[in-house]
Design a protein that fits this description.
The chain has eight helices and six strands. It is α/β, with parallel strands linked by helices. The chain has a six-stranded mixed β-sheet.
């Protein structure tokens, strides 16, 4: 079975995207998985901190792992918008494939420093995990968040401090950065 890193690299070479869908419960997980299998397309399912609290961190990890193994299908699990190292470590220990480490509410320099520290800590727990740093505000689907005013907006320039952490310097259009390598520039 390919790793998430393998699938993302292959998708990049082919110029295609891998869908990411948050799953608040088993019904949505099964629907996303069924659609991905029908399309024969790898898929990433995400679980926010709230969704992990509702479903259980170990439980969602076990469900995704069982689908991957039973059907020999590339489904991957992302700990979406994780705001603390403790929550990220719990997801890493449970077998998540990736983590969005979101300290975007902090000043950029503090965000970069703490995210860098988190990458090192998480790689110690789960060496193949992918860690994504969040910079600035990319918006949210939550009606409550649309009523707030966010002073920081993501730009390609604001993601520059994260670029040196990855030998590929990957940045997506949402200015999220997959920190793919264990080697972190000093």
């Amino acid at each position: 079975m390919q790793t998430l890193r393998d699938v993302l690299i292959q998708a990049g070479k082919q110029g295609v995207a891998i869908g990411h869908f948050n799953v608040p419960d088993l019904v949505v997980l099964r629907a996303v998985f069924g659609a991905a299998r029908e399309l024969d397309a790898p898929v990433i399912v995400g679980a926010s901190e709230g969704e992990r609290s509702f479903m259980g961190v170990c439980q969602i990890a076990a469900l995704v792992k069982s689908l991957r193994e039973e059907f020999d299908f590339p489904i991957f699990l992302n700990a979406d918008h994780t705001h603390s190292l403790a929550s990220a470590a719990e997801a890493a220990k449970s077998g998540f494939d990736s983590i969005v480490f979101d300290l975007s509410a902090l000043p950029l320099e503090q965000n970069v420093r703490q995210t860098r520290e988190a990458v090192s800590a998480l790689k110690e727990i789960h060496p193949s995990i992918l860690v994504e740093g969040e910079i600035g505000d990319i918006g949210s689907g939550s009606p409550a968040s649309r009523m707030k005013s966010f002073p920081i907006r993501s730009t390609l320039r604001s993601s520059k401090p994260f670029e040196n952490w990855s030998s590929r310097g990957w940045r997506s259009s949402a200015i999220r950065v997959w920190l793919l390598s264990l080697e972190i520039a000093s």
